[in-house]
Design brief:
Number of helices: 4
Helix content: 25-40%
Order of helices and strands: HHEEHEEEEEH
Radius of gyration: 20 Å
Distance between the termini: 68 Å
Strand order of the largest sheet: 2-1-3-4
Structural class: alpha+beta
Shape: globular
Number of domains: 1
Length: 149
Amino acid sequence: MKTLPERGRLRFLALAAVPFLPACTRDPGHGPARVHWDRDTCERCSMVVSDRHYAAQVRGGPKREVFMFDDIGCALFWLVEQGIPWAEAPDTEIWVTDYRSGEWLDARQAHYLAGKTTPMAYGFAALAAPAPGSVDFAAMRAALLAKGK
């Protein structure tokens, strides 16, 4: 059996560690959030976000909330449909996964290839660097919104 002073020391050490725990799990308020693959659902279509090559996220608003999407098309149409006042704000972040590596990219800096088989059939795959036939974010966005869906 432990002595009272030893219990007191253990309690002190446990309580001393508490202030440091939020730093390990707290969302920093910027950048892509952790995705719970095959459990998180798309904000627009409610499908499970499972394809690590075409996922997207939007982070913004006064609370810097993160919204998950299974396809960049869902993210862009959702922003338009919601009529969100912060949708075009410079601090609103849009993230996409590189279709080859699965790494997160700033969607506005990424390049896009059309004609890919994506989860919701919008057909655009993100790349970190330009490739033959790729377009920038503005051209991809315009093509998607013009197509409708």
